[in-house]
């Protein structure tokens, strides 16, 4: 009974402390004090180490789902980065980046932290996929590494505590969903006759529902690239999974040498680069002609959630009044669709034609 009374009396005190002290320190401007505290330790070697750590979860490692969710939340919340927000007598600095890198970071909103989100989701999923029975030591290592990444983002002035917490929650949610539905998705993509139409339909819906930010950011373009790549891989899996991509074959079990592996890597990279450029050029030529045949009202429905960058630079009427334009004067729906198909071609090339080529060549 005494413990019950103590718990009942302590609950209001705990809530008061949380609301008046912890919440502002995490979710309010007071959270930037964490950035300043971390930056008091500023040292060239520490800056280099944190900057290099952040690069380990750069764009090539992002899962399409993680990137879509993270980017959609960024453009939905539109939360500024710490180095863009005045706080106290001094401004939080952006450490460890060149002027060009700082400019690119300033173009995107900060919440949630994509680095924290992807370091958690990708690494947890990798451990789960490679070791289905789980390994507590590896999971603990993932948590430590994700904590290191979170600390690096605070130190570099790129994220506030609320950005990091949001990224961690989103990452854990995504990996939980991925682990739950993974087998069902693979079975559907590799066995259902509706897989390819479903892939294109899902791409259309996801890109159309992406939030529009308060001002232009490159986030939507990044999302388009990875949705296109995920679609290309899915279509490739649907056509050749049973013949060429049986699970369970690891590199160290293959009876070939390093030179054999390097040959496959070089040919695969060359084919992927060629497919991406060919897809981009072909789409850039055909799409403007094709889109002119669509009614203005239909193009307005498809219009990507981006700003009309060309409006400030144009002198005279728009070349195509049906759509907003890029800074270079190209309609955004043409630009986005061309980007989607260029990355679709890249991913499809490495998931279908290239494996078939290796099989035919006996590689």
TrEMBL record:
GO terms for cellular component: endoplasmic reticulum membrane. SMART domains: acidPPc (SM00014). Keywords: Endoplasmic reticulum, Hydrolase, Membrane, Transmembrane, Transmembrane helix. It comes from the Eukaryota. Pfam families: PAP2. GO terms for molecular function: sphingosine-1-phosphate phosphatase activity. It is a multi-pass membrane protein. It is found in: Endoplasmic reticulum membrane. The chain crosses the membrane at residues 13-33, 45-65, 137-156, 163-182, 188-207. Residues 56-179 form the Phosphatidic acid phosphatase type 2/haloperoxidase domain. Belongs to the type 2 lipid phosphate phosphatase family. This is Phosphatidic acid phosphatase type 2/haloperoxidase domain-containing protein.
